Amino acid sequence: MASRRWTIAVAVFGLVAIPFIFTDNNYVLSLMILIGLFGLMATGLLLLMGYAGQVSLGHAAFFGLGAYTSAYLTTRLGWSPAAALLIGIVVSLAVAFVIGLAALRLREHYLALATLGFGVIMYTIFKNAKAITGGLDGFFGVPPFSIGSFVFADERASYALVWGAVVLGLWFAANVLHSRAGRAIRALHDSEFAAEALGVNVFRAKLDVFLLSAAYASVAGSLYAHYVGFINPQLFDLVTSITLVAMVIIGGNRAIIGGVLGAGVYVVLGEGLKAVVPKLIPTAGGEFELLFFGLLIIVIMIFKPEGLTGFRWPTALRPGREAR
Amino acid sequence: MTEPLLTLNGVMKRFGGVVAVQGVTFDVRPQEIVALIGPNGAGKTTLFNMISGIFSPTAGEIRFAGRPIHGLSPHAIARLGLTRTFQNLQIFYHMTVLENVLVGLNVRLKTRMLAAGLRLPRVAEEERRARDMALQWLNRVGLAALADRPAATLSYGQLKLLEVARAAVSQPAMILLDEPMAGLNPAESQALVRLMLAMREEGTTFLFVEHDMEAVMTAADRIVVLDYGRMIAVGPPAEIAVHPEVIRAYLGAEIEVIAGAHPQ
């Protein structure tokens, strides 16, 4: 327990130090922001997939719902970004509730297919509901996030905002996992029969964790829209959903930090590939990235199904390991 | 005569063309220990699955604490105070031993997700009480020293006991035990019988399926015998041990040994 507090303290110190180390290197900060945004979303999906054992192949839809709600309310109606983010959560929860009521009665492959279908439907809506979403062009000029008169305009402020949200999200998730609600969620991963027989409403627990993971994706989507400033449907397609699953698999479910780790590996490796591959194979198109991550998932599934958090970490670096 | 706690009336279950359980009628009175025996495939586990709500009966009525429970979902039945263990272990392997027992306390706790995530003071307080209760039960089944170990590291016998602690921690009125002694060594098995007898004194009622006849004869007040889905006998151990149809269907040659071993 003491070593765990120490690890967290070191990690938080490192996060705070980064913008002071890379003072004139916006590239590092922008990568860190991207990792934070994907990490936040992957943390939500980790709760659903890694801890509750329920698949979602359509999670980019909630990322999109958050992003579009924030973009629409701030650019068209002039709302404050904070209020828009909250409405984004409400919209995502409402959609997740309706979808969850139907889809969460399904299991495994069937649930995967149902959520995949949901993702495709939402993508189609983002693309075609031009009056609200701007169609294929999407939204331009989404203002930076702000709270009151403080605008998170530059890279450092955005970094603080996003990683503040990540740390809050991890804290919230860790608290949930070690509570009555969290144990219900984790129980259904191993035995729905036993959980039910002990009085856990399994369907309710599935719905709870589905809603929670949708909220994480929604917040990430809102912050993404404000940070990048423009969004289009392509960002919320099936590839994004699959990418998120890849992050969760890479990071693994042995600790709540798995989603953020997976996002880190994904973003850093992706950047590395973009730099290296065109030099080696000048004719390579954009798909080589997908190919590489596909292979990586296969390798991890075969040799280390618990993901990065499943390795024996040196005590000082151990990412808050649980029994999982 | 006190009102029965559990009543089965003409319970029948059909899977397609196969009638797994038919016309089963018996009751279990408060603080009674009733054993359910019969050859493999007699329908014992099917009956358990109906009582605990995993299947609903094709016909017949199941009442618990005065109200019909057939057709209710398993978690609703558990909330009424009827929990169970499983013949083929159903352990939460990704959790610690203590956390497994804490899932059993789910019905007694109140924390919902938002309050849990924000770690409100009352959540921490409830969590502390829950851990105390869970540890107390781990202590009773002799697993307290292993509380923080991953459940996956326990032996088969220890996991059986963990299931008992998990089913008992919410202090339900009645517990169904599906072959609790299977895989236990004689000492563990005797300890479990003693625990059942002690819990009965504290007010718990048991219905258990078991093949270990010594445990059945020691623990049970009454025995229900199933054969090919039908109830062929019900009565106190001494009566069942000499019941001609039971001997023919199930006990066979073993009977002399048991009748001799059992003082009743």
**CATH first level of chain A:** Mainly Alpha
Q: Main β-sheet of chain B, in a few words? A: 6 strands, mixed
The amount of beta strand of chain A, in percent, is: under 5%
Strand order of the largest sheet of chain A: 1-2
Class from helix and strand fractions of chain A: mainly alpha
Organism (chain A): Hydrogenibacillus schlegelii
Main location (chain A): membrane
Protein name (chain A): Branched-chain amino acid ABC transporter permease
GO molecular function, one term (chain A): branched-chain amino acid transmembrane transporter activity
Structure report:
The complex is a heterodimer of chains A (324) and B (264). By secondary structure, chain A is mainly alpha-helical. Chain A has a single domain (2-317), classed as ABC transporter involved in vitamin B12 uptake, BtuC (Orthogonal Bundle), CATH 1.10.3470. Helices cover 71% and strands 1% of the residues of chain A. Chain A has helices at 2-21, 26-51, 60-76, 81-103, 108-128, 130-133, 155-177, 180-190, 192-197, 202-228, 238-251, 258-280, 288-303; strands at residues 146-147, 150-151. A two-stranded antiparallel sheet of chain A has the order 1-2. In chain A, a hairpin with a 2-residue loop joins β1 (146-147) and β2. Chain B folds into 2 domains: 1-81 and 172-264, Rossmann fold, CATH 3.40.50.300; 91-170, no CATH class. The longest helix of chain B has 20 residues, at 121-140. The two termini of chain B are 23 Å apart. The A-B interface holds A 172-173, 175-176, 178-184, 186-187, 189-191, 193-202, 208, 212, 323-324 and B 52-54, 73-75, 78-79, 83-84, 86, 90-96, 99, 102-107, 109-113, 116-119, 123, 126-127, 130, 150-151, 166-167, 170.
Summarize it.
The complex is a heterodimer of chains A (324) and B (264). By secondary structure, chain A is an all-alpha fold. Helices cover 71% and strands 1% of the residues of chain A.
